[in-house]
Fold this protein.
Amino acid sequence: MNSCTMKLFTGLVFCSLVLGVSSESWFSFLGQAYDGAKDMWRAFSDMREANFKNSDKYFHARGNYEAAQRGPGGAWAAEVISDARENIYGRAADLFRHGDSGHGVADSMADQEANRHGRSGGDPNIYRPPGLPDKY
């Protein structure tokens, strides 16, 4: 079992113990988490496809917003994915492409603020850059 799978499993068990989740709620939580992860992936894919300057905060907020709308499982998945992305990818980008990555501490903090904004139900469009095609 890889470390990500182990963390996911441990987190789900912990949530079920703390929240006293019944088996019906457990499956609902898992479904929400799965759908939320798909929402996050779709936002990431759209960001890569759009390749539009200054749009990353919008896609961060949008992915988190859509995932959180699924329910507690979706919000949980969005937070886990967002934190992992910032902690793993951001640091790796700084290590290998320092000065060129745009993933310094300030940018990572701004990404996390956009993530929290979306997860809390805030309108992702406040981060939408002018000229981004309507498709997104």
User: Anything to note?
Assistant: The first helix runs from residue 3 to 19. The mean pLDDT is 85. The radius of gyration is 16 Å. The CA atoms of residues 36 and 74 lie 4 Å apart.
